[in-house]
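Sharing a chain and its predicted structure for anyone who wants a worked example. Both blocks are below, sequence first, tokens second.
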Amino acid sequence: MNKVYKNAREACADIKSGATLMVGGFGLCGIPENCIIALRDMAVRDLVIISNNCGVDDFGSGILLQTRQIRKMVSSYVGENKEFERQFLQGELEVELVPQGTLAERIRAGGAGIAAFYTPTGVGTAISEGGLPMLYNGDGTVKKASEKKEVRVFDGKEYVLETGLTAEYALVKAWKGDRLGNLVYRHTAANFNPMMATAGKVTIAEVEEIVEVGELEPAHIHTPGIFVHRIFKGEKFEKRIERRTVRKA
């Protein structure tokens, strides 16, 4: 029952090229940065990453773009990463854009064993009608576009069918965890992490502190250890601000 690993490299050792990963975080908050660095150093390629965004050019999942290790991103917001934009527009990266709330619910549904659900978000747009570019040719023409989705009417309102999401591995970041994998997140660093922890076949948690079993107040546990397969204490964490706005007087 001891799920503790020495470090990120050991915890991620069996992740192979072509794997599908969920990567927690929102912007640069609550990201499994030690796992991301381990993946870079392992040189695994053709990864499919499900994450709200792809970090920035030199931090977060963005470092895996720099090393060309990502084949496809399933994301909501990608506006802070110039290399992401370049690879997408030049046909080097496939992108499935998903409305943020829909992405969260698709992950939650996958973790709950729900195959699909209906939502009003995206009805009447390219999200439901199809035709949203997912992969470009090198000359700028569309190589692959999203398909039309099923739309049904409930109580006089249209809803689009969305499928649940799961992954081979879920990489999450928590504040504290115990040796059984029970996790506590800190404030907004929770973001996508709790739902992703339930939707990975193998969930790997990096934490700032590992405590003994019984030290975490049961009522304060956000992710029960039954969902977590591996846990390790991160070697270092960098507290970055994604964007700072300075207002002139």
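Comments welcome. The longest helix spans residues 100-112.
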